[in-house]
Amino acid sequence: MTKKAAAVSPVLVRHVIWLGWKLVVFLSFALCFIALLRLHFYPDISSPTNSLSRTRWRSRIPRYNFDGPPKIAFLFLARLNLPLDFLWGSFFENADAANFSIYIHSAPGFVFDETTSRSHFFYNRQLTDSIQVAWGESSMIEAERLLLATALQDPANQRFVLLSDSCVPLYNFSYIYSYLMASSRSFVDSFLDLKDGRYHPKMAPVVPRDKWRKGSQWISLIRSHAEVVVDDEVVLPVFKKFCKRRPAVDTSKGKLNLKLQKQHNCIPDEHYVPTLIACFLFLSCQMSELEGDIERRTLTYTLWNQSATKMDNKAWHPVTFNYADASPKRLKEIKDINHVHYESEARMEWCQTNSTFVPCFLFARKFSRGAAMRLLSEGVVGPFDASLLLGNS
Ligand SMILES: *[C@@H]1O[C@H](CO)[C@@H](O)[C@H](O)[C@H]1NC(C)=O
Ligand SMILES: *[C@@H]1O[C@H](CO)[C@@H](O)[C@H](O)[C@H]1NC(C)=O
Ligand SMILES: *[C@@H]1O[C@H](CO)[C@@H](O)[C@H](O)[C@H]1NC(C)=O
Ligand SMILES: *[C@@H]1O[C@H](CO)[C@@H](O)[C@H](O)[C@H]1NC(C)=O
Fold first, then answer.
1. CA angle 39, 43, 47 (to 5 degrees)
2. Atom 2, ligand 4: which residue's CA is nearest?
3. Is residue 65 part of a domain?
4. What confidence tens digit (pLDDT) does each residue in 93-126 have?
5. What distance in Å separates the CA atoms of residue 208 and residue 17, rounded to the nearest whole number?
C-alpha cells in the first residue's frame, strides 16, 4: 500500500500543481476578458476626452429610446463668440426647451458665459475638446465632426443643423422645427462641378472621380447620416492627404509664387460631406440608398458676389448683408425662392420636404449685427420685445 501510495503521491502533487496553473491561467484570461468587456461597454474609462471613439461605439447600436420630443441640434461653428446671439436668443425664447439643443465649436478655451454671450441659451454650450480651426482646411471638417459626435451623445437629437457665426434664421422656431421634422431626409447641397480642378487623381480608388461632389458646407443631417460622417475612417484620410488648400500668395517670395500658384488647390469643407455620401453609395452596398435619402440642396441662403473679376480669386465671396440690405422686401424675396437651379447638371430642384412644396431656405448668411438687429425688430423670429434687449445690455 505504502509503495503504491508513495508511487501515487508525486503524480498527485504534480496533478494538483498542474490544476493550480490551469486555474491561474484561466483566471487571468477571464480577468482580461472582463477588462476588455468593460473597456468596450464603458469606453470613457479608457479615454474620458475622446468623444469620437465613444460615439463611434455608441453609433453601432442601431436604435435608441428617448423620452420626450425629438430635438434639433443646432451646431454652431464659430471663430470666437457668436455676434448674432441676441437674435438666436430671441429665436430660442420662442421654442420649447425640450425641442432643441445647442453645441458650439469655438476657439479652444473660449467659454460662453454672461461675459461673452448675450443669451443664456449659449452659456457653457462650447465643446470642451475643440480644436484650432484654419478656415478652408481639413481642421474645419474635424470641427464639424466633433460637433456631430458630441451632439450624437444625446439620443433625442434627430436633426443636426450646421450653422456659422454669421447665419440667421429666416423663420420662427416652430416653423423650422416642423419643416425639418416633416422630412426624413438630410439636406446636403451636392453637385458636379464640370470646371472642377480640385479633384486629385490619387484620391482614387477610394474617391473615384465620378463620386467627387461639391456643395455648400452648411448642411442639415438626419441622425443616421450624422453617424456616417462621424464614423468615417475611409474618406477623411484621403481628403487630408489630397485635398489641401493652396497657400496664399506671399509677395516676399517673389518668383516662388509662380510655382505656388501651380500647386493643386482644394477646399475640403466644400467637398467632404457631399463626396462622402456619394462614396458610401459606391463603397458599401448597405448604404446604397444614402444618396437617395438626401435633398440635394442647402437650407442656408448665400448671396455670391458675381461682379467679381475672374482674375481676382478672392472676390468670389459671399456678400454680407448690412442693415440696409435686410429690408422686409429683400427678405421676402429670399423666403419666396422655391427652386434652385444646378447649371452643371441641368438640374432644377423644386424645394420640397416630405413631398410638399416649401420655401427653399430656412437660414441665411452672412448677416452683420445691424442686419440681424433689423430681423429681430421686424419680428422675423417671434414677437419683438424691446425690453428683452435693454434688460440684457
Ligand atoms: C411662426 O411662423 C409661421 C410662418 O411664418 C406662422 O404661421 C406662425 O404663426 C408663427 N408661430 C408662432 C408661434 O409665432
Ligand atoms: C415641440 O415638439 C412637439 C413634439 O414634436 C411639437 O408638438 C411642438 O409643436 C414643438 N414646439 C415647437 C415650439 O416647435
Ligand atoms: C409625410 O407625409 C405623409 C403624408 O402626408 C405623412 O403620412 C407622414 O407622416 C409624413 N412624414 C413625416 C416624417 O412627417
Ligand atoms: C462685389 O465685389 C466687387 C469687387 O471685388 C466689390 O467692389 C463690390 O463691392 C462687391 N459687392 C458686394 C455687394 O459686396
1. 110
2. 308
3. yes
4. 999 999 999 999 999 999 999 999 999 999 999 9
5. 62
CB 84 within 8 A of CB 165: yes
Residues 6+ apart with CB under 8 A from 379: none
Which triple of cell numbers denotes residue 166? Answer: 454669421
Query: Which residues have C-beta within 8 Å of that of residue 291, sequence separation ≥ 6?
Result: 190, 277, 278, 281
Does residue 176's CB lie within 6 angstroms of at least one atom of ligand 2? no
What are 335-392's pLDDT values in tens digits? 999 999 988 888 888 999 988 999 999 999 999 999 999 999 999 999 987 766 665 5
Is the dihedral angle over the CA atoms 144, 147, 153, 159 positive or is it negative? negative
**Angle at CA of residue 367, ends 265 and 190, nearest 5°:** 45
Looking at the chain, the number of H-run helices and the number of E-run strands are: 12, 13
In a domain, 331, yes or no: no
Report the chain's mean pLDDT, rounded to a whole number.
Answer: 82
For residues 14 and 17, give the distance between their C-alpha atoms in angstroms, rounded to a whole number.
5
Can you name the residues that pair with 187 across neighbouring β-strands? 220, 295
Q: Is 184 in the pocket of ligand 3 (CB under 6 A)?
A: yes
The domain that holds 189 is classified in CATH as 3.90.550
Does residue 359 or residue 238 have the better pLDDT?
A: 359
Ligand 1 atom 7, closest CA = 175
Q: Ligand 3: which of 179, 354, 357, 358 to mutate, most ligand atoms within 8 Å of CB? A: 354
* Cell (9 digits) for 3: 509503495
The boundaries of the domain holding residue 101 are 47-299
Q: Which atom of ligand 3 is nearest to the CA of 183?
A: 13
Report the DSSP pairing between strands 347-350 and 294-295: unpaired
Residue with cell 443646432: 74
- pLDDT, tens digit, 9 for 90 and up, residues 280-336: 655 553 444 555 688 889 999 999 887 655 545 554 689 999 999 999 999 999 999
| Model confidence pTM above 0.85 | no
In a domain, 14, yes or no: no
Indicate if the alpha-carbon torsion angle 386, 382, 392, 330 is positive or negative: negative
Residues present in the chain in total: 393
Query: In the prediction, which pLDDT does 172 show?
Result: 97
Residue at 382 is within a domain: no
Total number of domains constituting the chain: 1
Q: Is 322 in the pocket of ligand 3 (CB under 6 A)?
A: no
